[in-house]
Design brief:
Organism: Citrus sinensis (Sweet orange)
Protein name: D-aminoacid aminotransferase-like PLP-dependent enzymes superfamily protein
Order of helices and strands: EEHEEHEHEEHEEHEEEHHEHEEEHEEH
Number of helices: 10
Strand content: 25-35%
Shape: globular
Amino acid sequence: MTSTRIVFSNGVVSQASDTPSVSTFLQERRGAYTTTRTHNNGSCLLFWERHLRRLASSARILYNSSPNLLFKSPTPSGLEPIRTPSSSSSLSMWESMIKSLVNDSMNEALPIALKERRDGEELAVTVLVSGDYGKLSGIENMGSDDFLGVFDVSVHFSGYVPFVFGVEGTGARLALVGRGRDVAEAKYSDWVRLRKPLEKLRPPSVTELLLSNDGDQLLEGSITNFFVVCRKISGAFEIEDNSEAEDKFLQTCNNSHSFEVQTAPISDGVLPGVIRQLVIEVCRSKGIPIREVASSWSQHELWKEAFITSKYSSSFDLIAQKRASYHGFLVVMFIVSLHQHYAPVASSLRVLQHVESIQVPKTWELQELDCWNDIAWEQKLFEEEIMERVGLGGYTLKR
């Protein structure tokens, strides 16, 4: 039995058997987009207001800096630069406009998609806002009234059954294969097409591709944000080579402050993901050390855990951990804190996926390579203790 798949565009619902996958849907349309999903048996949309704000921010950035990524090209070749009227509109105006356009479409389309949803499924929801270049004719300066008539909204719904966190084999396997995105602070559909050449360098069994501009500083995944739990070593620990230094380290192993969560800053060229921001907020509110810095592969021996975030990550139905070792302390503390902050969605929150392994090329010369097998790889395997403990030592949170 095939899963639910529905497209809503310009007031028309398409749910034919040949309705495209979300990847094809995005490749066929140009614009800013965001993807979320329902949770708790289709009763709510996950972090909807955050997604709308990020969508508005992406559309505004593309309009001002890269309109060719937001508007369908006016020429068949697609080579002619798109020139848009100047706009002094604030981010708040964009947020208001995007919220109005998208919610109007969702109010029509979502009830239909929920009715067609199969038992056991949630709905993955991709909303795309694209500009109609033809409607720009005659407009000299874009104001709030003009914007509403220039943009179209398309929504793709598909059935989705989330992974379960802590089950063997559901961890992510990552490989570094490409450079960072252009206009990385915006989420746009052309990236689905632009990342295709990276697939030739994907090793078998790898589930996500990492990006870096120098082969050492890891930025993000091709569709996810990337985090590392890294051991912090003071200068004394680094230079002392004796048993006293080792004893000092062992004494701090059970102290959460001897570790920190790391993720690349937006200024390095990463997407300001909705879940990425959520991780940062929860860590800071709970005193979990977190630093916005790109994790360095040259220091990967200090990494104790890694995880990625996106709407397609794992399920936390058994979460809390009373006896976490230092190997997974921060990961577990974050998970517990996330549930404490967002209790209404705790029963089906799926936002984080443990990383089982990372592969990185020994040399950063990928441009001329045609196959993953042409690359000499280094690999880091992460211990499975955190996965075992969460599954075996957890308990169901009260609702």
